[in-house]
Design goal:
The strands form 3 sheets. The chain has an 8-stranded parallel beta barrel with strand order 3-4-7-8-9-10-12-13, surrounded by 5 helices. Strands 5-6-11 form a 3-stranded antiparallel sheet, with no helix packed on it. Strands 1-2 form a two-stranded antiparallel ribbon. It starts with a helix and ends in a 6-residue tail after the last helix. With about 350 residues, it is α/β, with parallel strands linked by helices. The chain has a single domain, classed as Alpha-Beta Barrel (TIM Barrel). The protein is globular, with a radius of gyration of 18 Å. It contains 11 helices and 13 strands.
């Protein structure tokens, strides 16, 4: 109810400005112990995935809190897990503003942020300061000026820095907003990267006395042979999960809207069916031991159930929070907990 009242004010602002203001407001409410003004608590709906215990299967997708500055405020919304990032080894500003655009008619966003990041040192310090003790994923990427031939160096550098703080670590190889990043999904490059990450993880597990699961985040724009090739490499290299999917370069369903001509990745409702199809194809190809995390167009308990029925073990939200507000998290968890209420 509160969000419905303030949304017109937020939508009068530039999307990136509104984004920052919303997160700062959540931080204030959390510090005051007044998070119930933004969202009602989510019920417990425990699930065990990747050897981790989640209080519920509804998580925050990476991209909303790039530097981990707002972990405590976001945790108060009832997420079963939070994924922060993508983080790069060195600080970088990302692409020039404006770089976020709303498509309200489609409940969608286009962004071309380009891995804007304070760098991994800033992110780890923010994690250290947070009070959150739940499941925390860290999404890692490469700096824009690191050539793909040396991309593994950046991913490994981030993995080493975040290992002791993260519940799981995701290699983001699918953002459309860093030049040539998606080329890392090609089977030979992907295999080499996953092999390097898995070997480094094994070494770090011995040093730290704990094994941190690894995930890889893929694009929704892959063809079926591409999805199958990724699934095969993930299984062969001992990767624990695939996150499906990132934003899409397609403009299917929104091409009539003038804003759709902006370059960048499209997220929100138009992505739902495409992402669900990728979830299903991955599930059919992957062994049961590899988790699938479904993300893309989830705006209701029915949307979340669709991803779970397609084979996802967990789901994540981002864009729908912009349109539906922070109460959406508890609403979805309650709907999943009471199947008769899923809608």
């Amino acid at each position: 109810m509160l969000y419905r009242a303030v949304r017109p004010l937020l939508f009068a602002l530039d999307p990136e400005t509104a984004h920052g203001l919303s997160l700062k407001s959540l931080d204030v409410l959390a510090r005051l112990g007044a998070a119930s003004l933004a969202a009602t608590p989510a019920p417990r709906l425990p699930v065990r995935v990747m050897g981790l215990d989640f209080p519920n299967p509804v998580g925050l997708a990476a991209g909303l809190d790039k530097d981990g500055r707002h972990i405590d405020g976001l945790a108060a919304l009832g997420f079963g897990f939070i994924e922060i990032g993508a983080v790069t080894p060195r600080p970088q500003p990302g692409n020039a503003r404006p770089r976020m655009f709303r498509l309200p008619q489609a409940e969608a966003l286009i962004n071309r942020l380009g891995f804007n990041s304070g760098g991994v040192e800033v992110l780890t310090e923010n994690i250290r300061r947070s009070r959150y003790r739940g499941v925390l994923g860290v999404n890692v990427g490469k700096n824009f000026d690191t050539p793909n031939e040396r991309a593994a160096d950046d991913y490994l550098a981030c993995l080493r820095k975040v290992y002791s703080f993260a519940s799981f670590v995701t290699a983001n190889i699918s953002s459309p907003n860093t030049k040539d990043l998606r080329a890392l999904q090609q089977v030979n490059r992907l295999d080499a990267l996953l092999a390097a990450l898995a070997a480094e993880r094994d070494s770090l597990a011995k040093q730290h006395g704990k094994r941190v699961p690894l995930a890889v985040k893929v694009a929704p724009d892959l063809d079926e042979p591409g999805i199958e090739a990724i699934a095969d490499r993930v299984a062969a290299r001992g990767i624990d999960a695939v996150i499906a999917t990132n934003t899409t370069e397609s403009r299917l369903g929104v091409g009539h809207l003038p804003v759709s001509r902006e370059p960048g990745g499209l997220s929100g409702a138009p992505l739902r069916a495409l992402a669900t199809a990728v979830v299903g194809r991955l599930r059919r190809r992957l062994p049961a031991s590899v988790a699938v995390i479904g993300v893309g167009g989830i705006a209701s308990a029915a949307d979340a159930r669709e991803k779970l029925d397609a084979g996802a073990n967990l789901v994540q939200l981002y864009t729908a929070l912009v349109y539906r507000g922070p109460g959406l998290v508890g609403e979805i968890v309650r709907g999943l907990a009471s199947p008769g209420r899923v809608r």
